[in-house]
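2024-03-11 09:14:02 DEBUG pipeline.ingest accepted 1 chain
2024-03-11 09:14:02 DEBUG pipeline.ingest length=289
2024-03-11 09:14:03 DEBUG pipeline.predict start
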Amino acid sequence: MLTEIYQAIDPVAFTIGPVSVRWYGLAYLLGFVLAFFIMRSVIRRWKINISADSLTTIFLGIILGVIIGGRLGYCLFYGDGYYLAHPEKILAFSEGGMSFHGGLIGLAVGVAITSHICKIPFLTMADLCAIGGVIGLFFGRIANFINGELWGAPTDLPWGVVFGGAAGMMPRHPSQLYEAILEGLVIFLVLFALSRRVPPRPRGTFFGVFLVLYGIFRFSLEFIREPDAQLGYLFGGWVTMGQMLSVPLVIGGIGLLIYVAIVHLPQAGEPETVQTTSDTGRADVSSQE
């Protein structure tokens, strides 16, 4: 049945004149839109001071960081030297190739810069990004399935999918859907449930949990996902690049959760602006953390 569903969906969602809009692009768009509204909802529930202007500024940094970091990460981690020989292809987004780990690094850089500009603690914004942004992974992996890319190893299970093309005609694990469920939906439900408590859990909790869960899920699922053809298996013929990049996430997430438990900083937004009236009757404006 999954094979029939896969074959029935065109990777191109619709075409307007010479422009073709693919499901992959729509997945990114939907992920960003949902992330924005989820983050705004959590900000209101936590009652922290982050203005609409600041959230918009930071979100622009998120979008640029994810797209630029995702592309550069793919070229660096999965290009196998191709993009060093053909640097003009680095910006060829239409030819595909995005890396989650590169996108995560880009997101962290974008959030660090914009949260500094808006005077909002980095870890608070990282927590909000983890809660809101992880749902984008769900849609991204669904788009990978529609594109017939990043397929799994051969299987005789009844839900195996015949992707055809370079994947051949043998049924394969729909590893894209496994990742959509675990990396996207499950992590989102865990983080969203944790975010319901008010006052919120300490700064860095959600980002740390995300790093640990994503790293574990990604490392495990790589065992039934075919490695990128240009790289194959590394170090003894069983480790993939995805697994190598996921181990630091687990270690970093555990380290962050230990730090959170020790320091226990509360979630915080922008410095509050307080107006006081001087003896002359003039309003003085000051900021306090």
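2024-03-11 09:14:41 DEBUG pipeline.report The first helix runs from residue 2 to 8.
2024-03-11 09:14:41 DEBUG pipeline.predict end
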